[in-house]
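=== RUN LOG ===
request id: a7f3
mode: sequence -> structure
chains: 1
length: 235
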Amino acid sequence: MYQKAVRFLSRNKIKPTEILYIKHIDRKSQVCLKNGDVYDSYLPLKVLLDALPKGAFLNITKGIVISAAEIKKIDGNIYTLSDDTVFTGRVRGAGEHKANRKNLEKHKVAAPRISAETVKQRFAVLDNSPLATCVIEAVFNTAGHSVDFIYRYANAALANLEKIRVDDMIDRSAYDVFKRINHKWIETYTAVAVDGASRIFEDTNIRSGRTVTAVCSQPLPNFCMVTLIDGKITK
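=== RESULT ===
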């Protein structure tokens, strides 16, 4: 079911950052975008939620999922979005709504960010490395949830492995560069960039169909450095 949700989003070219809310109505899940477009799906709401960046959306009641980035204010269990759409959250979820409100207030002032140009300069020493490497930034919204992953650095080896030009990756969303992204990668990017974890795992390269080993670490807060090795690493 997860793959069906990914295909639905990819087929309709829906980016997570464009979604305002998703609601269950008339046995369908309606994906409502910030530009007013609406896409219907018979996939369960929870399945669609599972295919979106972890933490970027709040399931405030059984039939409503809203973008954390688009919350303007929370009064009790009443959520007002950026377009003034109002939703009522779970009646018995007072603690949950209070925590969401605190998160919103806590992150109203964004922390200073490292410029994309600084990241490129810092990792320029890897330009000629034979190891395919990129550095991805987790971009946060005002509620403190990661909503997108942007390529800030990539070397020639990675471009060669992925069959794509470096310039076509830099400062672009991972969702734009790769129309289909395995949920495993999104979870890994989040764990590394946000929590500082280190990860090593194997997966199939979508473009080549070959096995690749991904070595992921946090070089800077909110960043994930990924080195891809063609094949498996012998344990």
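=== NOTES ===
The radius of gyration is 19 Å.
Residues 142-146 have pLDDT under 50 and may be disordered.
=== END ===
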